[in-house]
Every structure is written in C-alpha cells, then in structure tokens.
Amino acid sequence: MSLPSYAGPLERTWYYAFRIICAAILIFLITPILIVIPLSFNAEPYFTFTPGMLQFEPEAYSLRWYEDILRNGMADPDAPKGWAWFTDLWQNAQWIRAMRNSFFIGISATIIATVLGTLAALGLSRREMPYRALITSLLISPMIVPVIITATGMFFFYASVGLASTYIGVILAHAALGIPFVIITVTATLTGFDQSLIRAANSLGADQTTTFFKVIMPLILPGMISGALFAFVTSFDEVVVVLFLADIEQRTIPRQMWSGIREQISPTILAVATILVLISIGLLTTVELLRRRSERLRGMSPG
Amino acid sequence: MATISDHIAAGTADDGVGQPLTAADGTPLKKKLAQANRRARLRATLLVAPLLLFVLITFVVPIGQMLVQSFYEPTFSQVLPRTTAALQSWDGRDLPDESVYAAFAEDLKDARANRTIGQVATRVNYAHAGSRSAFTSTARKAERFEAPFKEALIAADEDWGDRELWSAMKWASQGYTSEFYLAAVDRTRDVDGNIVMVEEYRQIYVKILLRTLYLAGLITGLCLLLGYPVAYLLASLPTRTSNLLMILVLLPFWTSLLVRTTAWIALLQSQGVVNDILVALRFIDDDSRLQMIYNQTGTIIAMTHILLPFAILPLFSVMKTIPPSYMRAARSLGATPWTAFWRVYVPQTVPGIAAGVLLVFILAVGYYITPALVGGQDGQLISNFIALHMQKTLNWSMAAALGGILLATILVLYWLFNKMVGIDRLKLG
Q1: B52–A176: do the CB atoms touch at under 8 Å?
Q2: Predicted structure pTM score
Q3: Does B182 fall in a domain?
Q4: Of A52, A198, A261, B61, which sits 20 to 30 A from B127 (CA to CA)?
Q5: B5-55, pLDDT tens digit by residue?
C-alpha cells in the first residue's frame, strides 16, 4: 500500500494521518506490556518512574523485587546460600510453590487436552462423522461459556463428588478449558490434509499404527503443538476456576498475583509480570515458527 | 459416497438383467457399501467419544448442576419436614392454624438440636428480608414451647403472626422455585403470590444486567473502531512488514490477563505513569490528578486493550483475502477514495466484522477478572455479582440464577455466531 503518484494533497495527508492513527493504536496495544519491564527494576516501592529512574541513576534501579519473589514465605531467607537454603526456597517460598503448581497443573491439563483433543479432531475431520456440527459446537463451548459460569458449575459438581480443593479437580477443569484450542488448531491443520496420503501409505503396506505415526502425525504435529501451547497458556493464565475450586495448597501463579493485586500491591507483582512477559514472548515465537513450518510442509507458504 | 451409490444404481440399470452387483465374497455390493459406511462412521465416533465423554462429565454436567441449583433449593423441606407437610394444606388466606404451628415448633426443636436453624433462616431470609432473627431467637426458646403453639410462638416473636412471612415460608418449602430467577430480575412474589417489583432500594440486578450489556457493547464498539484500521494496515502491507507489526498484536494476546491488568493499574492509578506524565507536561495540577482506575473508565480502558486482538485477528484474516485490485478498479471507474472504501471494501469485510464483534461481545459480557480488579464500584459486571454470591453472601442459588441468565445470553450469541460465521472457521494465532 504505497502512496500512488497521482494522489492529491488530501489523499496524501490522509495517508500519513492514517499511519499515525494506526501507530497510536499499536502503541496503545504494546505499551502496557513493555512498561512493566523497567518499572519492575524500581528501587522504591512505587508503581511509577522515580525521578532517579528518569535520570538513569544506577542506584534508582535494583533487583530487590526479584529477590522478593524468592524470599516471600521463606523460613530463613538470609541464611547462607547452601543446600538448606535451597530446600527452604523450594518448599516454602510462596511464588516458587505457585510456580511449581502452575507448571504441574498446566502440563497435566495440557497432556489430557492434547491427547483427547487430537483424537477427537481426527474423528471430527472425517466426513462420515455423524452430528459433526452439533458435536463440534459442544466441544468448543468451554471457550465461549464465561469462565465464571464454568467455575460456578464446577464448584457445585466437584464439591459433590469430592474433587474440590484437589489437584485432580483443578487439572480436569483446566483440561476442559483447554480442549477447544486443541480442536481448533488441529482441525485447521487437517483441513489442508491430503487424504490420499493415507491411502498411499496403506497401499504400500503400512498398517494403521504405522500410518498414524509415520504419515499423519508428522503432518499435524505443528497443529498439535500449537494447540498444546494454547491449552497450556489457558491453564497457566487461568484464575477464576482456581479461585473457586482450589485451596491454598493448589495456588497457582495467577492466583498468587490475584491476591497480590487485591491485598498488598507491591512491585513484586511487576517483577513476576516481567517474567511472565518473557515467557509469553518465548511462547509466541514458538507458535509463530510452528505456523510457518506447517505452512511450508503443506506447500502454502507465501514465500 | 453418493457418487459410488449412483454408480451402483447406474450399473444395475445398465446390465438390464436386474442382477445386483456383488463383491468378491458374494454379498451384494450395496450391502457391502452400507457396512463399510457404518464402519467408517463407527471409527469416527470412537475417535470423538472419549473427548465427548470427558467434556460431558467435566463441563456439561457441572453446568447442568448449576442450572438445577438455580431453581431447586431443598434446604427448607429438609430441615423442617413436618412444617413443610403441614403447610401443604394451608390456603394462605389467613394465618395458618394450630397444626402448622405445632409442626413448626416440633421442627424448630430438631433444627436447634442439629444446628441447622441458621441454614433455614438464611433460606427464608432471601425471600422475606429481615426474618432471620425471628428464626434464630425463637429456636433458642424451642424447648419451652407448650400448646397452644400458635399463641406461644407469636408471644416469642411477633413475626410469627405475620401472614407474609408464612407465605414466604410456604414458597420456600416447595423445593422447586422460580424465586431466584424472579429475584435476578428484581421481582418477587407478594403475599398473594402475584409477581411484583421489589422495593426501590433493592432493585439492582436489572441495572447490572443493562450495565453489563451497555459496557460490553461500548467495548465492542471501541474494539471495532480501533481494530479495523490496524487490521486494514496489516492486511495491506507487504508480508514481511505486516508479520513484524503483527507481533505487536500477538504479544498482548499471549500475555497473561493479570499482567495486562497489573500494567493498567501501574499506568492509570493516581500516582501512576499517565498521571505523572500529564502533571510533568502541566496539563493537570499535581492535586487534581485524574481518577482513571477503580471506576468504569478503568474497566473500559483495560477491557478494550485486552479484547482488541480478538477483534483484529478475525478482521485481518478476512481482509487478507480481499484482492487490492477491487479498490483500484473502483477508483479507475471514477469512485472517490471514500466511495471506493465504503461501497467496495467495507461490504467485503462484513464476515470479519461479524466474527470480531460477536467474539468480543461474547467475551466481554462474561468478563470477571478485570472488572473485579480495576472496576471499583460502578465498573462491576454481572459476573462480579455471581462471584459475590458464591464467595461472600453464599447465596448459591442466586449466583446460579444469575449464571443461568448470563448463560442464556451467551448461548443466543453463540448460536448467532455459529449461524453467521461458523465456529469451525475460527482461527487462532
């Protein structure tokens, strides 16, 4: 969309005005995410830039909030850094425990969602599947139904079957929330899937299992992985279900942030936020690379 | 599959003898095909079945249970079974007769012993505000009541001579009730069972529902307004540049909701970055800092930011498919840039607009986290009231009824989305 040579002055003005508007909107989108990074190095317990920070004085910056992430909840944070200190950190530090919970719950939920979701997507992409539209919209609905409703329902149900305040309860709930993403991404990779490849494999003597692992799986793997990443992020970022279903024992990072924001807001939250932003940059890069690989594999790359 | 059947049909007609075609093992081809079809259907179903079962158990059943909770509340009949039975024959015109009072006195004794009187008091209190103390104080004297119970009870607490309270108890004694849905639209039953509005000062839910719809609509509008130009720019730039700029849209999309909400708190609070900049630039005085958060403004800004990628991505994927030559053709045929854009380009992006608008609206209507953290008093949505009843007042049936209303709204929108866009065409990332 370069400016054509015949453009009049009005059009020329609008061309630049439009770009400025778009730049402003993009800045609106990205600023809040980038702003937390410098703020997290604040030496003072404020949520804004101190005069010292603006003049780039080294003493206005510090890593104290990152240290705080580790120290919070430890029995003896000032002990010499040895084996005992590390066990203390691993066992007692609130954020470390939240992180362990987040990864444990997230990974378990992702495995359930990815395995079941991929199988279902394979079934749903077959034309013979009866009631396909109805079942698809049912399986996608956990993404559409507000989490507060899901969490309310799960609270009643899981409490009545004794799954409230257990890891299994939270994992099952998060798996249900992640499933739609796996279905959507795997189905998307399957739409360009050439069914004759399966017949070719069969005619060359491969059995069902070999065909799946040697032919189908490599082709849908990018979709599976990005679906799994979506499911993981859904669990990693989820707080409402955890609020309703989990006990202090199952606190995850978002749950810990939630009480941090509500109760004693300190720049520690910003330090955690910075770490999470870095994680999301990593995830975004992975998904983007996978998407390109998938397009290349299927010959859909724009070049 | 239809083509094969046609082929067989044609084959049967062609050979003229009327002999059906057979497979190698002698079974008619038609039967064989039906078998193969059935097997393929079964195989597809078996692949989907585990997940379907999983979603049914972990997701559909819980929501069903929530809906049951919204109109079934058996506390009263469980705790006060004799009163429940006795109230069945009460016609509600006068005060109940002695037998009801006797049954009630008997039940109170049990409830007092089992420490369940509080549950029942709370339950009736939902329907008849201010009746809680009558239950608890009377139960304390339950051991000492003697016939005639009617006089004894009224002497213990004059509320027991109130026909309205007894009518509320009769409604509560029927486990199945529409009371919570009525309460969710600010209505209640009067003593004769007519549906009336609740007192002015207790009318909150209709206001909250309307506010939720209004804010969701406003946020959707803002997302469309901000998302359309960006999607247009991204779709019209060369792939390399647009991929780069796309990161600015996708990074927020991938970043934790709580991180973004925290960031807005840091930016917008009265000692925050935006206010500091405005003060430094002397747009505002230090003592007249803007209150941009912990109110409706905060909710609107933060939610627009969080939901904007959901508007941009569907718009972008539609705009990407529109050939730029259409606009050039319109221009060469004499259209002004505005006409070319409005009459040629915009109509082609309608599917993207529909997808983006519905998606953002559906997500906004049910939002909980962001309004709870930055919404203050007037930025709360219906979800926040569901959470309030779940966690603070413990009026679970009320929470379930509000959830039921929200769910119905969402399902209508979801149905509309499916009709207009098709959920299987939704793309991510």
Answers
A1: no
A2: 0.86
A3: no
A4: B61
A5: 454 444 444 444 567 778 778 888 888 889 988 998 998 899 999 999 999
